[in-house]
Amino acid sequence: MTAIAWRHKHMQLDQRKLDRARRVLGARTETETVDRALDLVVTEADIDQALRAARRKGKLRRVF
User: Fold this and answer.
1) What does the pLDDT profile of the chain (64 residues) look like in tens digits?
2) In which element (H, E) is residue 53 found?
3) How far is 64 from 61, CA to CA, in rounded Å?
4) What pTM was estimated for this model as a whole?
5) Cα–Cα distance for residue pair 56/40, rounded to 1 Å
6) Cβ 12 vs Cβ 21: under 8 Å
7) Are 60 and 50 in contact (CB under 8 A)?
8) Other C-beta atoms lying within 10 Å of the C-beta of residue 40
9) Nearest Cα to 33, choosing from 23, 22, 19?
10) Cβ(51)–Cβ(62) under 8 Å?
């Protein structure tokens, strides 16, 4: 397991989007909201990459 490299960032964000994401993700803070949203993006990218690799190997086929 690699160590987490924490960095302090300053960002300008759409407050309405941040508030909505916070509610959707059930986050307590804005920092937690951004962290959870980034986790989702990274996880989705990993899943997409795995599915594309399996599809290239012919292990998946389109159903719809």
Assistant:
1) 788 898 999 999 999 999 999 999 999 999 999 999 999 999 998 888 888 888 778 766 677 7
2) helix 30-56
3) 9
4) 0.71
5) 24
6) no
7) no
8) 11
9) 22
10) no
16, two tokens: 């309405």
Cα–Cα distance for residue pair 62/64, rounded to 1 Å: 6
Rounded Cα–Cα distance for residues 9 and 30 (Å): 12
Give the type of residue at 26: G
Q: Give dist(CA 23, CA 15) in Å, integer.
A: 12
Q: Please count the helices (runs of H) and the strands (runs of E) in the chain.
A: 2, 0
In this structure, what token pair is assigned to residue 33? Answer: 């909201």
**Quick one: 33 exposed, middle or buried, by C-beta within 10 A (0-12, 13-18, 19+)?**
buried
